[in-house]
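user: can you give me the structure for this one chain? tokens are fine.
assistant: on it. calling the predictor now.
[tool input]
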Amino acid sequence: MIDPDGKDWYSSIDGQAIIWRKGNSVIDNYKNIGAIYTLNIENGVSITYNQNEATTLTESVLSPKDFLTQMSDKFDKNGIPIKKEGKAGDCFYQAGEMVKKSRAESLLGAANKADDDINYVDQEIDNGYSTRVNVDRNADGNGDHWVAISSRITDLKTNHKNYGFIDPAATDANKGGINNKFNIVNGKLSGTANAYQNRKVNYIVVQVRKNKN
């Protein structure tokens, strides 16, 4: 690995210490790990650095191991995954089960919706909780699918925020179930799911369900 000016992060060979240093002299018992480093703090919070400048704050309320899918391991004649039977095949149910993994409970009933979606999502993330959100996939203004908020990612230079979500319509975590993000567009959370039945689909949040926590 080449580092002409020596401005990079270094890890001790045993992995017990991480440092950033200016200068290009060799450091005994350390290896260069590049210009980008993510420091994991605690409780799902991490800070990403570009050189010695903090650039991104990530606050996770769900992790990849919390992923749940409504899809079975069976496919129809067109190669599209088939939903599981019963409530296990229901996106509303599976999104709610994922919220429970953050130690909160998403309330039932249409009356239990947040008055201010984005502020409510922020409030719950501040407290370490996921939320169950209803999305419009057909651009008709109506919610037709449910996902679970998994994180808030803040650009520390611009203060721009986006929000990770886990999609139970994905067949597994690595095919997009955990790698989706909402941006704030015209006052609404909007983004592209990487794997609704393994296809890219635009999602717009039309409702956030309140939690009992």
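assistant: here you go. The helical segments are 91-100, 117-126. Residues 106 and 211 are 4 Å apart (CA to CA).
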